[in-house]
Amino acid sequence: MSMKIIASTCTACSACEPECPNVAIREKGGVYVIDPKKCTECEGQFDEPQCVAVCPVDGCIVKA
Q: For the chain, which terminal residue's Cβ has fewer other Cβ atoms within 10 angstroms, N or C?
């Protein structure tokens, strides 16, 4: 499974990008996207996905 950023709620603040241990997040067209092939939901590394932990917009990053 992977996480997904809801484009309509993403403010492009960039808080999530440097927190991703798998380098799965990048900017595309003014918002951020998560590469599902790289995303592991931080399993085995953290108790929760780090992108969700730092995102200032509730519900912006969800399970895909």
A: N
Report CA-CA distances (Å) from 52 to 37, 55: 18, 5
Q: What share of the chain is helix, strand, coil (3-state, %, to 5)?
A: 10, 20, 65
Q: Kindly state the percentage of the chain with pLDDT values over 70.
A: 100
Stated as kind and residue range, the H or E segment containing 33 is strand 31-34
Q: Diameter of the chain by CA atoms?
A: 31
Note the pTM of the prediction, 2 decimals: 0.94
Q: What is the pLDDT of residues 4-17, one digit of tens each?
A: 999 999 999 999 99
